């Protein structure tokens, strides 16, 4: 878990160094909304991929 967080911060720092002031995420609410949207999308994809053989045959 800690390694994953470090990698994410490393990627963010590389993007920051590469792009400088050209990129801005916005304010607190827009960043929070972005994070929530990404978390929900990730959960939806995991749920869809959890049991693909059941959905293909129409089973629940």
Structure explained in plain terms:
By secondary structure, the protein is an all-alpha fold. The protein has a domain at 26-60. The chain contains three helices and no strands. It starts with a helix and ends with a helix.
Question: What labels describe this entry?
Answer:
60 residues; mainly alpha; 0% strand
Mean pLDDT: 79
Tell me about the biggest sheet?
Answer: none
Number of helices: 3
**What is the CA-based Rg, rounded?**
17 Å
Molecular shape: elongated
As a percent range, the share of strand residues is: under 5%
Task: Summarize the structure in short.
The chain has a domain of 35 residues.
Explain the layout of strands and helices.
Layout lengths: L1 H18 L8 H23 L1 H5 L4
């Amino acid at each position: 878990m800690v390694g994953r967080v470090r990698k994410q911060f490393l990627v963010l720092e590389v993007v920051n160094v590469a792009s400088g002031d050209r990129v801005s995420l916005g304010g607190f609410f827009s960043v929070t909304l972005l994070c929530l949207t990404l978390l929900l999308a990730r959960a939806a994809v995991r749920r869809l991929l959890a049991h693909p053989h059941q959905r293909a045959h129409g089973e629940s």
